[in-house]
């Protein structure tokens, strides 16, 4: 009984510490939000860009909060001053990584599974000669748009320039390299059309 009570008190103290950490981080990073999101664990924000959160956003960012995402956190890498990641209302993220050089927009009521990675650019040039010179080694940037009511399965990767249509579903472990229409299921590497959603 005593051990159980002690364990509860330790967990409460850790949770309070995480809440204070996230609130301080939001203040320092000037995160814009309608109401402070529900965050399990600690998020990470790096870079010089902007993070904008809608109403009632839920973020899992620890092993305890979502076992599927394993030990990773939810990470926002906002590479430069023009980088903007915006998350819509009632959207849930689990141990998700956003790497943004220009713009990543996530709609309302979106569910993003554990360990998903979303990139709006190539990390490096596709030209091997440019990769040899750090001053020329720049990847292509294209915004990513994930529309309302989308569900993205765990460990998927969404790559630059992709638009995912409303209500569409991405199967777990998929690599999405091209845009997906509304109301379809896609899966695989690279992700391919599986079927339309039933009306």
Fraction of residues in helix: 10-25%
Strand content: 25-35%
The number of strands is: 20
- Strand order in the largest sheet: 2-5-8-11-14-17-19-20
Number of helices, where a helix is a run of at least 4 consecutive DSSP H or I residues = 2
As a whole number of angstroms, the C-alpha radius of gyration is 18 Å
Q: What is the residue-mean pLDDT, rounded to a whole number? A: 90
Question: What would you say about this model in short?
Answer:
This protein has two helices and 20 strands.
Describe this structure in words.
By secondary structure, the protein is an alpha/beta fold. The protein is globular, with a radius of gyration of 18 Å. The strands form 3 sheets. An 8-stranded mixed β-sheet has the order 2-5-8-11-14-17-19-20. The protein has a 6-stranded parallel β-sheet with strand order 1-4-7-10-13-16, with no helix packed on it. The model has no long low-confidence stretch (mean pLDDT 90). Helices cover 16% and strands 32% of the residues. The N and C termini lie far apart (53 Å).
């Amino acid at each position: 009984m005593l051990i159980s009570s002690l364990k509860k008190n330790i967990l409460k103290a850790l949770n309070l510490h995480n809440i204070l950490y996230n609130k301080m981080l939001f203040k320092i990073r000037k995160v814009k939000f309608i109401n402070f999101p529900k965050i399990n664990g600690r998020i990470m924000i790096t870079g010089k860009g902007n993070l904008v959160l809608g109403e009632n956003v839920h973020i899992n960012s620890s092993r305890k909060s979502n076992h599927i995402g394993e030990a990773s956190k939810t990470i926002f890498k906002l590479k430069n001053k023009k980088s903007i990641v915006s998350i819509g209302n009632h959207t849930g993220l689990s141990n998700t990584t956003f790497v943004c050089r220009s713009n990543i927009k996530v709609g309302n009521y979106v569910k993003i599974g554990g360990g998903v990675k979303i990139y709006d650019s190539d990390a490096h040039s596709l030209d091997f000669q440019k990769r040899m010179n750090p001053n020329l080694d720049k990847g292509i940037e294209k915004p990513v748009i994930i529309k309302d009511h989308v569900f993205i399965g765990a460990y998927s990767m969404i790559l630059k320039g992709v638009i995912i249509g409303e209500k569409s579903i991405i199967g777990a472990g998929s690599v999405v390299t091209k845009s997906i229409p509304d109301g379809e299921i896609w899966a695989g590497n690279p992700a391919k059309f599986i079927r339309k959603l039933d009306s």
